[in-house]
Design brief:
Blueprint (H helix, E strand, L loop, with lengths): L2 H6 L16 H16 L2 H9 L4 E3 L4 E4 L2 H8 L5 E2 L12 H7 L14 H14 L2 H20 L6 E3 H6 L2 H10 L6 H16 L4 H27 L5 H9 L8 H35 L1 H9 L4 H11 L5 E6 L3 E3 L2 E3 L4 E5 H4 L34 H18 L4 E2 L22 E3 L1
Parallel strand pairs: 2-8
Antiparallel strand pairs: 1-2, 3-5, 4-10, 5-8, 6-7, 9-10
Helix pairs in contact: 5-11, 6-12, 7-9, 7-17, 9-13, 10-11, 10-13, 11-12, 11-13, 12-13, 13-15, 13-17, 15-17
């Protein structure tokens, strides 16, 4: 396998789900159904795990489930004992044809999410600077303008499918602006990012896997082109900042440095639009399912920042990441040998009774809850300010312009969540007003 393929398929040596062959179809379909059911509604599984002593091993996840708030915090506070090397281990193994396509990409190694120690600090520093409070403030006028323009595009129609028409578009345009992408390159880059997510986390047939791999490789080469141009023509954008941090000086970067830079730029793009799109979708969904909460925001828009935090707590856009024990350790009274894999469930920690009263109730008037929706410790999300700003401005504009917004008839109980614990969001969100 090439370095490019290996860097994409983080931890490929696991029990991955794939398109079943005739000889094992019954087993694969049953396993896929069980995993899909857990991913679409993980909260009953989380609640059972929190009630149990110690940790429980979840076969569908092929990992120990860390479900209680205090235990999740402990793991995140001990990065030397719990490595991030397999933080995003995929659910699906690409086919040989897809691997062949991935081999044509730009080689890279681990990204900030899957790095530890000094390497993680080196990769994280430009993320933190590039998404600082000051940088986000400069983006607020652009975010506000794009929110208004996108809503203008459907406001007169009386109905919209919000995920496709808005939630999946705004964050892509914003992160593209931050990186310094030309507007005409953003739709293709966002599409390729979604295809990369499908390749990692959904069972596609071999032809579609190969097509998704081609889309991903095209994205790598697009980002490589931007990196090359910014080395000779630097600009005031995150792409230039990343080049200066990861490939300093005037010397030609090594293949390894070039690969790290491209992997980092691709990761910023994917994380920047997929996570925020998910949070926009779930925030609107839960506000409209709890009509009193929506009406409260319409009457009291000063509560919107609290509503953003409650939406993130109640249904975290990233339900958790994986960790690997670097040595024999004990956690919550459970002994874990070195190499044990854990799924550290932010979504479960945020519903822990030890965190807040009535944790299964959606309440936008909550204050002071230190939820873990954006992680904790050295791997906390560096883009949290940017995500919060986009969701806040979205809710401010929707409550002001479309106070009668509601789920389309027949959809109140029909909205289904995408079967993934990464970027949890509605598959479709049809709305009317």
């Amino acid at each position: 396998m090439s370095d490019a393929a290996a860097s994409f398929i983080i931890g490929v040596g696991h029990r991955a789900r794939s398109t079943p062959s005739a000889g094992r179809q019954a087993v694969d379909v049953a396993a896929l159904d069980a995993l899909d059911a857990l991913q679409r509604d993980p909260y009953p599984h989380y609640a059972r795990a929190r009630r149990r002593d110690g940790l429980i091993y979840v076969g569908e996840l092929d990992a120990w489930l860390v479900a209680r708030y205090a235990d999740v915090q402990e793991v995140l506070n001990r990065p030397s004992d719990f490595s991030s090397a397999k933080a995003m281990r995929p659910d699906a193994t690409p086919s040989p044809a897809a691997l062949s396509e991935l081999a044509k990409g730009v080689s890279g190694s681990s990204i900030v999410l899957t790095s530890d120690g000094a390497r993680h600090r080196r990769l994280r520093e430009p993320h933190t600077r590039g998404m600082s409070t000051a940088r986000v403030i400069t983006l607020i006028p652009f975010i506000t303008e794009r929110v208004a323009a996108l809503i203008d595009g459907f406001a007169a129609d009386g109905g919209v499918e919000l995920m496709g028409a808005y939630a999946e578009r705004l964050p892509g345009e914003v992160i593209g602006r931050l990186l310094g992408l030309a507007p005409h390159d953003v739709p293709g880059a966002v599409h390729a990012g979604r295809r990369a997510e499908q390749l990692l986390f959904r069972p596609l047939d071999p032809d579609d896997q190969a097509a998704a791999a081609r889309d991903y490789v095209a994205l790598q080469h697009l980002m490589d082109d931007y990196a090359r141009r910014r080395r000779t023509e630097p600009r005031a954008d995150l792409c230039t900042d990343m080049i200066r941090a990861l490939c300093p000086g005037s010397a030609q970067p090594t293949d390894s440095d070039r690969g790290d830079l491209v992997a980092t730029l691709v990761n910023v793009l994917l994380a920047g639009h997929l996570t925020t799109a998910a949070l926009i979708g779930t925030a609107v969904l839960h506000l409209l399912r709890h009509r009193d909460q929506w009406e409260l925001l319409c009457e009291h828009p000063e509560l919107i920042p609290q509503a953003v935090e409650e939406a993130a707590r109640f249904d975290a856009p990233v339900q958790g990441f994986r960790r690997v024990a670097t040595r024999d350790v004990e956690l919550a009274g459970t002994r874990l040998p070195a190499g044990s894999e854990l799924f550290v469930a932010f979504g479960s920690a945020n519903r822990d009774e030890a965190l807040c009263d009535r944790p299964d109730t959606f309440d936008v008037t909550r204050t002071g809850v230190r939820h873990l929706a954006f992680g904790h410790g050295v791997h906390s999300c560096p883009g949290v300010r940017l995500a919060r700003a986009q969701v806040r401005i979205t809710l401010e504009t929707l409550t002001r312009r479309l106070p009668g917004l509601r789920l389309a008839p027949g959809w109140d109980g029909a909205v289904t969540m995408r079967p993934t614990l990464i970027h949890r969001s509605p598959e479709m969100l049809p709305l009317v007003w």
